[in-house]
Amino acid sequence: MKKENRPGQQAANKIDIRGSDVTPPAPTTQVNHNADAGGYQGLSQPEIADILNLYPDNLTAA
Questions:
Q1: In contact, 27 and 35? CB cutoff 8 Å
Q2: Nearest CA to 41 among 50, 49, 32, 51?
Q3: Average pLDDT over residues 31-44
Q4: FRET label pair with 59: which of 21, 35, 43, 46, CA 20 to 30 Å apart?
Q5: Are the CB atoms for 18 and 12 separated by under 8 Å?
Q6: Are 52 and 59 in contact (CB under 8 A)?
Q7: Of all residues in the chain, what percent carry a pLDDT higher than 70?
Q8: What is the DSSP letter of 48?
Q9: pLDDT tens digits for 11-30?
């Protein structure tokens, strides 16, 4: 039995007009603005030390 597409539903074949499925990263200015708007103050030095103590083998930044 051959499967038929329903009316208004077309297979994405040789004429695929969709864009990329990957959302590009937000610009740094937008991220900073969103952080400010949300009241994010960053990490304190003790919080950073706590995180580094949890992962002692990964002391280099990614």
A1: no
A2: 32
A3: 83
A4: 35
A5: yes
A6: yes
A7: 56
A8: H
A9: 555 565 666 667 777 777 78
